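Let us work through a complete example step by step.
Step 1: write down the sequence.
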Amino acid sequence: MAVTTGKQYAVGFRSARVYALDSRGLIDAVDHLPYEGIQVPSVKALEMTIPDVRRIVHVGDDRINAQDTLPRIEASSGVMRVGRNDYDLYAMITGTKVRTVGEMAKIGYATDKQGAEADIGMLAFQQSLDSAARTRRYHAYAFAILKAILAPGSMDENPAEYSYSLVPNTSTKSLWGEQYTELADGYIESEFDDWMTVSYPHIVAWVQDGVVAKFLFHADRPATSVDKIHGVWIATTAQNYTTEDATATLALDGVTPTALPAAGTLIVCAYEYAP
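Step 2: predict the structure and record it as tokens.
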């Protein structure tokens, strides 16, 4: 069983997926089929800007007596650059529609929906190497809640490039919906989480329809191993967070909760699959 150390050399930008969120801030799966979000096409770069802390200098006797810090009061921001536009993705994150007129598709930019963009989750990762063993690993950012606003590309002799302005928000729960705790995480709020995995990191969700007992992964993305299924979390319709089902049955092709969930229950799984 390969484990991760949290020490790695990372490079590139391999993949990003965005997830629709429901009114509870949980992944918005719709039925017993695996919901994996939408793959962002042709990702090129993800750049996060984390503002500096507030530096407090205590002065007296014509000199610096001490330095202290306070939490920053400027928000984090990010830019994701992609090489291909995708109308369906754009419509999801802006709350607008792709309209077909005859055989033409169209969308609008800078619409009256500005400021009302949908809250989404996102999992983005790049390849890396374990710093000691030099073996293949993957480095990911997991955003539980953020907004992404697309800017149109230029028209010139260069390949068109589009950019998403990323606006992460502080969340009290992870992308899979579990609440942070001091005991487990050492914090109770985070703007985004940093992951290190052996294989491709992935999040999938389902909603119980009252019949299905086993929830299947996509056939093209089975788990690398049972050890690489990192958890199953469940939320009833009355909960705005998920709780771990620590005794769920894990298999390469899917997971089976300990007890048959009631209809409408959300099931979320974090796992890894082979490239």
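Step 3: interpret the result. The chain has a mean pLDDT of 95.
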